[in-house]
Amino acid sequence: NVPERRLSTPVLVIGTGGAGLRASIELAERGVGVLAVGKRPRTDAHTTLAAGGINAALGTMDPEDSWRQHAADTIKESYLLAHPEVVRIVTENAARGIDDLVRYGMPFAREADGRISQRFFGAHTWRRTAFSGDYTGLEIQRTLVHRATELAVPILDTVYITRLLVRDNVVFGAYGFDLNDGTRYVIHADAVILATGGHTRIWRRTSSRRDENTGDTFRLAVLAGARVRDPELVQFHPSGLLEPDDAAGTLVSEAARGEGGHLLNARGERFMRRYDPERMELSTRDRVALAAFTEIREGRGTAKGGVWLDVSHLPRETIMERLPRVHQTLLELQMLDITEKPIEIAPTAHYSMGGVWVRPEDHSTDVEGLYAIGEAASGLHGANRLGGNSLIELLVYGRITGAAAASYSASLSAQQRSSWAVEEARREIDELLTRDGRENVRVLQRGVRDIMTEHAGVVRDETGLLKGLAELDAVEERFADLGIHPDIAGYQDLAHAFDVKGTALAARATLEAALERRETRGCHNRSDYPALDPDLRVNLVWAGPGKIEREELPPVPEEIASLMREVDTSGHKLVE
Ligand code: FAD
Fold this sequence. Notes:
Strands 1, 2, 5, 6, 7, 8 and 15 form a seven-stranded mixed β-sheet that branches. This protein is of the alpha/beta class. The chain has 16 helices and 19 strands. Helix 5 packs across helix 15 and helix 14 packs antiparallel against helix 15 (about 490-515). It is about 35% helix and about 15% strand. Flavin-adenine dinucleotide binds near residues 19, 52 and 160.
């Protein structure tokens, strides 16, 4: 018999990555009660992995830059699927997001005269990416944790949330359990902010943290009555490691190509010559990922299903000075010395451009009192994310949504709760803990990840997607025979059972939307529909199995559209 703790807070923030922490800080600075929960240590959220930088048109290096140009670049790169109003809000408020970080003590790289340094990122017109070495995400996370600690924000980062509590389409809290001792949590709240990240770990190779990005966001939101926008739009990074298995997808920085690395197929050919002869290895992320995928699929890949990224021809000093992190990572993970041997890589799931459907002005959802921010949300990136835009999104909407949740909470005079909803959440865990079947949660999760890798990777087609859905049905049938065994080491098995439920739901949403998007646009390549279809300049909104609607996007304002026409963003070198 495990104990059940009851907590109550004006605002509950689920997720202690950059987005959740920024929202929590906003609430605490306004004197509003907040509780932040996460399922892994606050110092180790996915956000810490971000390397290259964070965007804002500060104009410190290029005074010609403006938020409008930043907006134009973002919409152009999104293949017109970004929501213009979300883009305006993020780009216009980006400088304030950087100011907030500076106020909290963020150690940005600076020029000799004190200006914040800014560098080029692929497809930006001007230098507008601020950074902190190649540890920008880690420094942001540290800075936000530090500020949250100063403000005494209560953080529980061993609590796995399994359900949002909703009555009559109004959220009133969440239910979960402690990963170490199984203690249950009933958390009552006026408002709930979902900051639970993306769904990239539903693919076999992913740049995300282990046990993060498992589809929890989609499951929590959809079971609560919210919807998901464009789940099929996922950015694949060209260079993820193949091995070791438990670190598959770990990124090899684009700097390795930027510094002069060669991409080779198993025959030793520099295959980018066939795909982008002018820019070769310096081509854009989506093009390089598609090229590597094509080489592998057409039988010119390595025996393990990859291609080679070779920097061994570069002077040893260049590698040690410019690529120290890559050198160290390969030594640690594979005992491979990149000054002597090539790295075996393949495209890897990297970023969820889709996410929970939200209103542009405050990121509220279809469920009253429920908000979504960060990689969990949607609207900014469309069919291709501009590098450096996701970190600034965390800062901008963390602040705006924190403020919105604060006023929503203040406006509530009474709240209807439902003991039935709590009982349902409680029973779901009780029932799982009685399972003594033969199926292992990890094996089933691997099954779903294999399906996604096979049928919904860089290139998709109708036959494969339908096959993926049929195979997903078969894996889900095996859930009936699960065995779940919490032990003295903690409740990881139960956590993985919920991970696999989230993974399956996110996989279904992604497969169904990928089927529905009968065109090739940005990251979404349909070999059976190789052209962009102007009529599909719509968002696909998924409300549950078989329920997809098209949503029209507003036109791009003329002041932004005119800047999109003037710009040629093709020539810039990759930095990240
Ligand atoms: P996350 O940081 O993923 O946090 C999610 C939180 O939710 C975690 O605390 C997690 O524990 C919690 N959570 C999830 N499910 C549950 C649950 N069921 N119960 C309780 N808690 C839960 N972006 C840029 O802009 N610039 C870059 O240079 C850049 N580089 C990157 C490099 C790498 C290798 C990667 C992987 C990403 C990079 N990104 C970059 C993207 C960026 O890091 C992420 O999009 C961003 O950090 C997401 O932050 P978040 O707060 O939304 O979510």
